[in-house]
Structure to design on (466 residues):
């Protein structure tokens, strides 16, 4: 993060704008919306600024910039065509620890002016850190369509009841739960319908109900996080991530996805890897039960899909035994995600008419699979958690009838910027992998569809973020 997002109170504070052209006029009007006392220093003044001066909305100092102009200012914006003046303003402001923005010169700025969606008192700011103001404006335009003006009036309504809610509910958790119920319920819908008096009445009734409105046992959300790329999350998964009180997550959940959780949500790591379980499965089950009984909304976040080698079935069995409410949100399983990002179609009319998912090791760490059923032509086999058993897997498939020249791919950290695809055959890949350092998570794909990888590869991790 190149700039720390901060909302600054400049109400009735002296703010300096150097320059009075068209660009400066937009900055001046922005400061006026924030109720700042605006002082403008400029030799030439555009019509918009001249009108603001005549209407006594801003103070104009009609001359060149002087170093003394920065004294006593809360904030400074320089919007001139003179590079030397802009540099001088930046140096003087920084030396005096006054926040300064130089238009179209990020290197001279101590703060960036974002694109703004104004739903006062709700304000949303979008910034590209100065790298692409046009992109920031395009994102703002998209967000404008998603944030109705009603949200401003809703925020004003809520503000008037904050003290009453604080008096009614003693803990932060209770107050947060109350407001989430209100803001996702009929009060908001009534405001959207233009029925503000009715919305106010419903809110007053909800406060009167108090504990009766929020009491009850918690809930568990069993959510698939997908194979790694946060863009592959479902809308429902994202919504639940942002309302859960606690996130219980696995080793395969990527950090960018965790960052989407509510910032004040507790995080509990229960990751597992071969012969090293941070928390045994029975322990995870009991954590979910305990937290839900405390009245918390618990988001159990699993890599891939919770019902495909994710032990989701074991967890909800325990929840059902305790009568705990839960819901399951499917995720894009690693097989689908990693294969797609590797340019390997799992089925293809010319190469494979079926696909089989198998685990690379069982509960007792063995690889005791139905090899005759797996070693069939014209099908694709996907092995989860098979890195350490790759040699055995390849040997068994050849032993039970697959050609040793059958193509195999090992996908390392699929769908992420660190993705690597290692391609070989049942005979050669185990030998090649022995010479490399492979970092999990990995996925093994066996079948003739792998030969399409080079032709169909579309995802180029080395270009991501460039």
């Amino acid at each position: 993060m190149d700039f720390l997002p901060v909302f600054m109170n400049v109400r009735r504070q002296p703010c300096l704008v150097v320059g009075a052209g068209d660009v400066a006029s937009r900055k001046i009007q922005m400061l006026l919306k924030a109720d700042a006392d605006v002082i403008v220093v400029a030799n030439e003044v555009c019509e918009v600024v001249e009108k603001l001066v005549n209407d006594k909305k801003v103070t104009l100092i009609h001359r060149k910039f002087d170093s003394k102009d920065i004294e006593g200012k809360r904030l400074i914006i320089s919007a001139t065509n003179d590079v030397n003046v802009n540099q001088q303003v930046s140096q003087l402001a920084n030396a005096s620890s006054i926040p300064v923005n130089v238009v179209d010169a990020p290197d001279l700025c101590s703060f960036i002016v974002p694109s703004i969606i104004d739903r006062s008192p709700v304000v949303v700011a979008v910034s590209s850190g100065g790298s692409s103001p046009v992109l920031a404006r395009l994102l703002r335009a998209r967000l404008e369509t998603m944030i109705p003006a009603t949200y401003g009036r809703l925020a004003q309504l809520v503000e008037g009841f904050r003290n009453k809610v604080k008096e009614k509910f003693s803990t932060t958790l209770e107050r947060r739960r109350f407001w989430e119920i209100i803001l996702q319920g009929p009060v908001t819908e009534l405001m959207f319908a233009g029925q503000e008096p009715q919305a106010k009445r419903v809110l007053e009734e909800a406060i009167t109900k108090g504990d009766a409105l929020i009491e009850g046992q918690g809930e568990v959300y069993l959510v698939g996080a997908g194979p790694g790329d946060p863009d592959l999350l479902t809308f429902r998964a994202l919504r639940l991530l942002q309302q859960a009180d606690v996130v219980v997550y696995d080793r395969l959940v990527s950090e960018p996805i965790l960052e989407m959780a509510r910032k004040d949500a507790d995080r509990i790591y229960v990751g597992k890897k071969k012969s090293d379980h941070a928390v045994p499965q029975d322990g995870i089950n009991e954590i979910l039960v305990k937290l839900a009984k405390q009245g918390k909304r618990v988001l159990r976040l699993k890599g891939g899909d919770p019902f495909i080698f994710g032990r989701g079935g074991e967890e909800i069995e325990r929840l059902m035994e305790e009568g705990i409410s839960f819901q399951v949100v499917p995720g894009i399983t690693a097989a689908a995600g990693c294969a797609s990002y590797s340019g390997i179609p799992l089925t293809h009319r010319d190469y494979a008419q079926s696909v089989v998912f198998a685990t690379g090791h069982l509960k007792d760490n063995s690889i005791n699979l139905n090899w005759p059923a797996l070693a069939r032509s014209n099908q694709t086999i996907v092995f989860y958690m098979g890195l350490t058993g790759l040699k055995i897997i390849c040997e068994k498939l050849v032993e039970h009838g697959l050609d040793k020249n059958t193509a195999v791919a090992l996908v390392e950290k699929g769908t992420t910027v660190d993705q690597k695809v290692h391609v070989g055959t049942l005979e050669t890949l185990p030998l090649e992998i022995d010479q490399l350092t492979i970092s999990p998570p990995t996925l093994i794909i066996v079948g003739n569809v792998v030969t399409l990888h080079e032709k169909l590869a579309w995802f180029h991790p080395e270009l991501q973020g460039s």
About this structure: The first helix runs from residue 22 to 33. Residues 219-332 form a domain with the Cobalt-precorrin-4 Transmethylase; domain 1 fold (CATH 3.40.1010.10). The radius of gyration is 30 Å. The mean pLDDT is 91.
